[in-house]
UniProtKB/TrEMBL annotation:
It comes from Mycolicibacterium rhodesiae (strain NBB3) (Mycobacterium rhodesiae). It is found in: Cell membrane. The lineage of its organism: Bacteria, Bacillati, Actinomycetota, Actinomycetes, Mycobacteriales. GO terms for molecular function: transmembrane transporter activity. It comes from the Bacteria. This is Arabinose efflux permease family protein.
Length: 401
């Protein structure tokens, strides 16, 4: 799995940097609120605008990549991220930051979607191995992001934004020089293709499962820094532990559990474990040690879920993988965009326990939806070699986070 062409490693490196942007902001949510006199629900819009635009933009990534080619789409996404992050760092109020985070989300959609497709298309071995490599990049980026965000955020809340811009500029150079030119797809993707793909019940079931699961995930990610009430550096260290746990299970544990128990049974137990973790956080919200421990433990379950859900999407519907992935990401990200904002509102107007109870209920519902969809996912555990894929199933875009 680790013997891959330079192009794969170039995109994987750029993916690490891109995924750093997700967790990089987490340690500075409270400092932003304190410095700019903003409420938790206002600051949580940094996640909402980012996720909402990313979800809608997933419908466009296929259209763009199929016309200008994956490499140009990757580079375009990186440049947009550089602009969005840099301008967010120069903002003077929360509204401006929220707006530039939306631009950042557009860039992330263009990059992340095409990155998975490029790795799957260029990698040697099976689909599962290519996805594990992609998840390794995701896990490493998510793990390092909060740590870097905590270090830079302890200097200034603007630091992480400028840090992303600098790292992305380096990623542009690496991608431009190491990734060969990629031609446009033989068949241009249309905006209607992802919606047609959702007619397949297996794909729709996985997409709704991911939407509900991400509701709980982003509740934890966006709201927890407020009841923790720690410094940016301390929160960065906690979420660094979360990211390490995520990276370990996504690469090492998930494939072994899948091989032994199967994809759907593993996901069902994993979702129930994630539900239980959020329940513990709801009960022990006022205990910082409980919250910090649960954040790290949740990373174990999130890593397993990310790897297995991504692979399931790649196999769930008899359509081009890029189209299936765009449809899935549209549902997942658009719906999950509500969670950070709602968590902030519930924390302000009800109590600090309410966001976690709602998140736990959403993840429990995700397990129910997956259980109802399992009859349409009977073939997903069949191994599929990348070099045996036909031209008809070649992809030009894909996604995950």
């Amino acid at each position: 799995m680790w013997r891959q062409p330079k192009a794969v490693w170039a995109v994987a490196f750029a993916s690490v940097v891109a995924f750093m942007g997700i967790g990089l902001v987490d340690p500075i949510l409270k400092p932003i609120a304190d410095n700019l006199n903003a409420s938790p629900s206002q600051v949580s819009l940094l996640f909402t605008s980012y996720m909402a635009v990313m979800g809608v933009a997933m419908l466009v990534t296929g259209v763009v990549a199929s016309r200008i080619g994956p490499k140009r789409t990757l580079l375009l996404g990186l440049v947009v991220i550089i602009a969005g992050a840099g301008l967010a760092g120069m903002s003077e109020n929360v509204t401006e930051i929220v707006g530039w985070r939306a631009l950042w989300g557009l860039g992330n959609a263009l990059f992340i979607a095409t990155a998975l497709a490029t790795i799957v298309n260029s990698a040697r071995g099976s689909v599962a191995q290519a996805i594990i490599l992609y998840e390794a990049a995701l896990g490493l980026g998510i793990a390092v992001g909060p740590l870097v965000g905590g270090v830079l955020g302890s200097i200034s809340w603007r630091g992480p934004f400028f840090g992303v811009s600098a790292l992305m500029a380096f990623a542009v150079v690496v991608t431009a020089f190491l990734l060969p030119s990629t031609p446009p797809a033989e068949r241009a993707t249309t905006l209607a293709d992802p919606f047609r793909a959702l007619r397949h019940r297996g794909l729709l079931g996985v997409a709704v499962t991911a939407l509900l699961y991400n509701f709980g995930f982003f509740t934890l990610l966006a709201f927890t820094p407020f009841p923790l009430d720690m410094s940016a550096h301390e929160i960065g260290l906690i979420f660094f532990g979360w990211g390490i746990a995520l990276a370990f299970t996504s690469v090492v544990v998930a494939p072994r559990l899948q091989h032994r128990f199967g994809t759907v049974p593993t996901l069902l137990v994993n979702l129930l474990a994630m539900t239980a973790t959020l329940v513990v956080m709801a009960i022990g919200t006022e205990n910082k040690a409980v919250l910090a421990t649960c954040v790290v433990v949740a990373g174990l379950f999130i890593g397993i879920n990310n790897t297995l859900i991504t692979e399931t999407v790649m196999k769930a519907a008899p359509v081009e993988r890029g189209v299936a992935s765009a449809a899935y990401s549209f549902v997942r990200f658009s719906g999950a965009a509500l969670a950070p904002w709602l968590a902030g509102v519930l924390g302000e107007r009800v109590n600090v326990h309410a966001p976690y109870w709602v998140g736990a209920a959403a993840v429990l519902m995700a397990a129910g939806v997956l259980a109802l969809s399992r009859s349409h996912l009977s073939g997903i555990d069949a191994d599929e070699e990348l070099d045996e894929l036909s031209e008809a199933t070649a992809i030009s875009v894909g996604s995950d986070s």
